[in-house]
């Protein structure tokens, strides 16, 4: 980052020079850190549409070109040639592992997949009909009560152990939340299975009969994990960073990220999208929903369409669409009404002037729900699967922040538009 370039800003006649920082890729960034001290003004940017909150070496997105890189590697290459645990290593440590490093990392993750036995009791405190995301927010937050030997953020070894624990245990916790919600016994992790197969096994096996994981489905599951692994400073990642900036422990920070991800404008969109496809129900009702989406007076939005950053296409959606075709072919799903609605909706929206002019394209959530449903997951499990996939991204960003000497507690300013200073009025005079 060279800061030889600068910009000049005139604030009520006073000239302020602002350094311009140049990134490896992407637009230059105006450095306004000293602006308040020099000019006594704040900047105003609700939703952070023009604000970089940190510098980061992990993930890069070019929204116009539809590019996504993890540590410089394009997502398409990683999705085709790598696998989730290798991608986790890359995100956490910055480079692709050697064979020995990969074996060591996989062993460490695999050896941490079980959760504290007492956690089973903790699960039983939840209502059976609780949404698995509600259970996950609670259980992941409670990890700091079970694993307090890895909550000292000043100790690099504890940070490392907490990272491995989170990556290893999130699939177990997500599967337990699912099993609990359907009244089936918890299935313990199996260390002879790879990460994705183990997750499918914990979700779909029952003690009464053997369950063999289809390797093609495990591969599709692994790809879903890989495509969701990180996405730079999105809402949930920024939440993790903000929570972590106060020195909160990693389990508490990841629980905060899970809470933020749950919203339908973010990770909850995959569930909302499939529910919308089911609600539309048949191809002939699509025009009605397209009209609702365009109507300014109707809050309805086409779920699974649009993205804050991608304004051309979502590269994850491209890979996910191919994966969806493969999985549906494998499972022999051809005439499923949800799928028919999805295909037709996509076709119409991609040609419709409203969606084209606003650059609204199908995002990753549009296709992921179709695959997950075909695999047998209920819609309520879609966002927990996103959460477990994103955990490595959150923890990598959290580790990067803790190790950054510039790290300060996150504390945005505001534009106060409330009442001016006034005197208290006694109750009998109001
Ligand atoms: N359906 C209909 N219109 C839409 C949609 C949509 N899905 N998304 C955006 N628009 C319209 C808005 O009404 C707005 O129109 P206007 O300019 O006439 O007011 C314009 O497009 C821009 O929308 P914004 O909300 O300003 O865009 P923003 O970048 O803030 O929002 C978001 C991005 C939240 C993803 C939005 O597109 C949306 O709500 N999509 C549906 C939910 C969804 O699929 N979320 C998943 C995102 S991907 C992820 O988290 C993994």
Topology record:
Blueprint: E1 5-11, E2 14-21, E3 29-30, H1 35-39, E4 59-62, E5 67-70, E6 73-74, H2 75-81, H3 84-93, H4 99-110, H5 118-124, H6 132-146, H7 156-181, H8 195-204, H9 215-227, H10 235-245, H11 250-261, H12 269-280, H13 286-294, H14 315-330, H15 337-351, H16 353-357, H17 364-375, H18 382-402
Antiparallel strand pairs: 1-2, 2-3, 4-5, 5-6
Helix pairs in contact: 3-18, 6-7, 6-11, 7-8, 7-18, 8-9, 9-14, 9-17, 9-18, 10-11, 10-18, 11-18, 12-15, 12-17, 14-17
The structure holds acetyl coenzyme *A (ACO).
Notes on the structure:
The protein is mostly helical and 430 residues long. It folds into three domains: 6-52, Rubrerythrin, domain 2; 75-262, Citrate Synthase, domain 1, CATH 1.10.580; 268-375, Cytochrome p450-Terp, domain 2 (Orthogonal Bundle), CATH 1.10.230.10. It has 18 helices and six strands. The strands form two sheets. A three-stranded antiparallel β-sheet has the order 1-2-3. A three-stranded antiparallel β-sheet has the order 4-5-6. The protein starts with a strand and ends in a 28-residue tail after the last helix. The mean pLDDT is 94. The structure holds acetyl coenzyme *A (ACO). The site of acetyl coenzyme *A (ACO) has 18 residues, from α17. Belongs to the citrate synthase family. One of its GO terms (molecular function) is citrate synthase activity. Keywords: Acyltransferase, Transferase, Tricarboxylic acid cycle.
């Amino acid at each position: 980052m060279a800061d030889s370039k600068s910009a000049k800003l005139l604030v009520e006649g006073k000239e302020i020079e602002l350094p311009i920082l140049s990134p490896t890729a992407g637009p230059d960034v105006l450095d306004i850190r000293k602006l308040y001290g020099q000019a006594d003004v704040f900047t105003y940017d609700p939703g952070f549409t023009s604000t970089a909150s940190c510098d980061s070496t992990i993930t890069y997105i070019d929204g116009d070109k539809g590019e996504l890189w993890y540590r410089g590697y394009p997502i398409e290459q990683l999705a085709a040639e790598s696998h989730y645990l290798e991608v986790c290593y890359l995100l956490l440590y910055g480079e692709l592992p050697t064979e020995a490093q990969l074996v060591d990392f996989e062993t460490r993750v695999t050896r941490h997949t079980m959760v504290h036995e007492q956690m089973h009791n903790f699960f039983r405190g939840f209502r059976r009909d609780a949404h698995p995301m509600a259970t996950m927010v609670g259980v992941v937050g409670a990890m700091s009560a079970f694993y307090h030997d890895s909550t000292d953020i000043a100790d690099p070894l504890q940070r490392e152990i907490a990272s491995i624990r989170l990556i290893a245990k999130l699939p177990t916790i997500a599967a337990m939340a699912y099993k609990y919600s359907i009244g089936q016994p918890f299935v313990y992790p199996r260390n002879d299975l790879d990460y994705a197969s183990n997750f499918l096994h914990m979700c779909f096996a029952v003690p009464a009969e053997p369950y063999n994981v289809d390797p093609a489905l495990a591969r599709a599951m692994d790809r879903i994990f890989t495509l969701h692994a990180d996405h730079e400073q999105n809402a949930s990642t920024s939440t993790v960073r903000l929570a972590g900036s106060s020195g909160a422990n990693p389990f508490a920070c990841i629980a905060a990220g899970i809470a933020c991800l749950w919203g339908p404008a973010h990770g909850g969109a995959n569930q909302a999208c499939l529910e919308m496809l089911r609600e539309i129900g048949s191809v002939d009702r699509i025009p009605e929903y397209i009209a609702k989406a365009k109507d300014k007076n109707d809050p309805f939005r086409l779920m699974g369409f649009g993205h804050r950053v991608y304004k051309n296409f979502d590269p994850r959606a491209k890979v996910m669409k191919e994966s969806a075709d493969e999985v549906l072919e494998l499972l022999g799903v051809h005439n499923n009404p949800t799928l028919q609605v999805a295909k037709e909706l996509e076709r119409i929206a991609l040609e419709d002037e409203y969606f084209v002019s606003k650059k609204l394209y199908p995002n990753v959530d549009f296709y992921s729900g179709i695959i997950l449903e075909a695999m047998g997951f209920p819609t309520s499990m879609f966002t927990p699967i996103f959460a477990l996939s994103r955990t490595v991204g959150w923890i990598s960003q959290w580790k990067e922040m803790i190790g950054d000497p510039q790290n300060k507690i996150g504390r945005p300013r505001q534009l106060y538009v409330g009442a001016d200073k006034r005197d208290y009025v006694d109750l009998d005079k109001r």
